[in-house]
Each structure stands twice: as structure tokens, then as C-alpha cells.
Design brief:
By secondary structure, the chain is α+β, with helices and mostly antiparallel strands. The protein contains 8 helices and 15 strands.
Length: 295
């Protein structure tokens, strides 16, 4: 069955599409992977339903799109992990599959996923694609929202566009979690998540479009006083997450959703924390730090 792609976002026909004719468990050809990447350049978010896959199958599919990240953005030590270091555990479960207690440190840290963010912008070389597989989902709640940072840039006032060009923000999970009052970091974690520089404006290499590059991880702008920088970043985030730029995905079992972190911000929404939610994410690394990429 050939790959077919159709837009599904009622607000914008160039943002979010659904792909059919893919069986990730059976393997995907290089030709199909190229077609998927072309679709990603246009739509930035691709929903692939009905993919009952293993972690190994998900990882093999993800490898078509570039070098892979390891899961170093969360709290559990290697011996505490439920999944391998190749898979980001986006769940509310402990190593034994039990739901985390409401005040569990891992759960409180994970609440940062409900802030608007871009995956791995706190790493020197951030993420290219994220691929999130819905293994077990609650009956209601837990949607994921996506904001089109290309459209947000296009609709930004020209004077603000000029002000943004050339600015360098500093990103860290110390900022994003700190904004929720989570400040219980060890010395090793503070060192691990020391702020890294990222361009505030990027040019997407596939589409050629300029994009705002924002995240809750951004807590400073180089050369600016911190309060002014944070107010400016908040204003930009409010602009970029207006409803006209946002698509909300309601998860179905075995959905796989891909998104392009170079062009999209996203956030999880609330759900009943006593219910099982088991999501597995693979992450494709970008080609280079943002400051090393042409603007």
C-alpha cells in the first residue's frame, strides 16, 4: 500500500497531517522514509495511526531520519530506569509498572512536560524529530498540543522580527522546572543541565522558512537583564501559542506522532494522574548546535 498523506488540522492546511500506508512493525524502505521527511518539511507534525510496535521497531524506524539521542533528559539513574537509554519514558509509571505517587520526585519533574517546550533545547545539539508512541492511554485527558513556530514567526510584527534576529537565548531544565517551583536539584544535575545557547530565530533547512525557537527551558537572553529577557520570552510564547497556531491531538491507542522540534513547540495536557499513561519516545538529534547552523 503506498504512502498517503492528508492534512487534518481544520485551522491550517500546511500544519499537521495524517499518514496512511505505513507498517512500522514490518519495516519501512528508504524511499518511504524520504517521502515521510518531505511530508515533515511541509506539515511539521505527522500522525501515523495504528502502529502496535515494540521499542526496537520504533527505534529502527527513527534511525531513518538521523543520529539518535539517548534518554539523558530525565531523572532516573540507569539502574532505576524502566526502559532502555534509547527510549524516553514519557509515562507516570515506576520500574515495576506501578503508577507514581503524587509527590514522587520523578512525577513532579515530569510535570514540566505540560509547559510549552521544544525537546532537548537544553542540550548543546538539540533534537530534530521526536517520535511518540501511545502504548497505554487514559480514557480522557492527556492530549498533546502543538504550536506552529513558522506561522508564529510569519505573523510577528516586523519590528519584533527585527529585534529577535540575532538574539541568543540560554536554555536549561533548571529554568523550566524552576518556573514550577521544582528546585530540588542535586549538584550533579545542576552541572548536567547548565544553560546552553540557542538561536531565538532559526531557518528550517528543509522548508527554508524562518521559525521562532522558543521553549520553557529558555530563561535568559545573552546581553539582556534577566527580568527583561524573561518578560520578552513570555510575550513571544503568548504570541506563538495563540489558538490559530495550535493543534490539539487526542491520542488513540497505538498512535505514533512525529514532530519537528525545529519548527514546533508542544505541551502535554492534564489527565487523571492515578490512571496508567505509558508513552515511549525516540528522539532524532539535530545536525549541529543552532549557532553552527546558517540563519
Amino acid at each position: 500500500m503506498p504512502l498517503t498523506v492528508r492534512p487534518i488540522n481544520p485551522r491550517r492546511d500546511d500544519f499537521v497531517a495524517e499518514a496512511a500506508g505505513i507498517d512500522i512493525a514490518a519495516g519501512v524502505s528508504r524511499e518511504t522514509a524520504v517521502q515521510i521527511e518531505t511530508a515533515m518539511d511541509r506539515y511539521a507534525v505527522l500522525v501515523i495511526p495504528g502502529q502496535d510496535i515494540t521499542d526496537d521497531q520504533q527505534y529502527a524506524f527513527s534511525q531513518h531520519f538521523g543520529p539518535m539521542e539517548t534518554a539523558t533528559g530525565d531523572l532516573p539513574r540507569l539502574e532505576e530506569r524502566r526502559l532502555s537509554m534509547d527510549i524516553n519514558d514519557i509515562s507516570n509509571l515506576d520500574r515495576d509498572g506501578a503508577v507514581l505517587a503524587r509527590d514522587d520526585r520523578r512525577r513532579l519533574f515530569g510535570l514540566g512536560n505540560m509547559l510549552w517546550h521544544t525537546d532537548s533545547s537544553f542540550k548543546p545539539t538539540p533534537a530534530k524529530y521526536s517520535l511518540l508512541s501511545a502504548r497505554v492511554i487514559p480514557e480522557e485527558g492527556g492530549n498533546t498540543e502543538f504550536a506552529d513556530m513558522r506561522a508564529a514567526w510569519d505573523e510577528l510584527d516586523p519590528k519584533l522580527q527585527a529585534e529577535c534576529m540575532g538574539l541568543v537565548a540560554e536554555h536549561s531544565q533548571l529554568y523550566s522546572r524552576g518556573s514550577l517551583g521544582f528546585v530540588d536539584f542535586t549538584d550533579d544535575e545542576r552541572l548536567k543541565w547548565a544553560p546552553v545557547p540557542q538561536r531565538l530565530v532559526r531557518r528550517h533547512p528543509g522548508s527554508g522558512r524562518l521559525c521562532l525557537y522558543l521553549a520553557s527551558h529558555a530563561g535568559a537572553i545573552q546581553g539582556w537583564p534577566v527580568p527583561e529577557a524573561r518578560m520578552f520570552l513570555k510575550d513571544l510564547t503568548e504570541h506563538a501559542t495563540q489558538r490559530e497556531f495550535v493543534y490539539s491531538h487526542r491520542w488513540r491507542p497505538y498512535d505514533l506522532v512525529m514532530w519537528d522540534n525545529r519548527a514546533v513547540m508542544h505541551r502535554a495536557r492534564r489527565y487523571d494522574h492515578t490512571k496508567h499513561r505509558d508513552m515511549h519516545r525516540t528522539t532524532v538529534a539535530d545536525s549541529a548546535p543552532t549557532l553552527a547552523q546558517p540563519l
